[in-house]
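Protein data sheet
==================
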Amino acid sequence: MPKSQTITHLLEATGSGDAAATNQLYELTYEQLRGLAHRIRSGNRAQTVNTTALVHEAYFKLLPGGAAAATDRVHFFRIAARAMRQVLIDAARRRATREQGALLIEQDTHASADRASADVLDLECALRELEAIQPRHAAIVECRFFAGLSVEETAAALGISEPTVKRDWRVARAWLAERLDPPTSREHDA
């Protein structure tokens, strides 16, 4: 049985409450989840959660029913990417809260970690704004950036054409770049 059919079968069994299927699903997808976590972490420059912890925390978020809600392999990894995004956002918020009001004696050593937390929170805020005005664009960003899905897989996951994915991906990236690097900071660079 091909891997995608095996994952789909295990998702169905997991939805029925089969604990053994849940364990098999984890074992079968673990390396792919690690690869996904690594891409997400490097793409966000957020070093507050290591790859293994990100996989484990995201999987625990999936256990109460998220994994069972997935209909196939692509949908499962899209849900997993969203769970990883939530874990990173939660970690960035915790870090920002801890650092708030604290006196940083060694500011230089904390600067890059603080910036990574701020970057994750800024990206999350921008994605929520994009989701409010263009939900499909935000879903494409989630699929392509967070889940690492190809154009073809994204089109299948969202039920849209590949040219639409490519066009909306370009528009969403440009919008996010503008949102995350406002003109005031670019004016100083010129």
Observations:
- DSSP finds ten helices and no strands in the chain.
- Residues 100-115 have pLDDT under 50 and may be disordered.
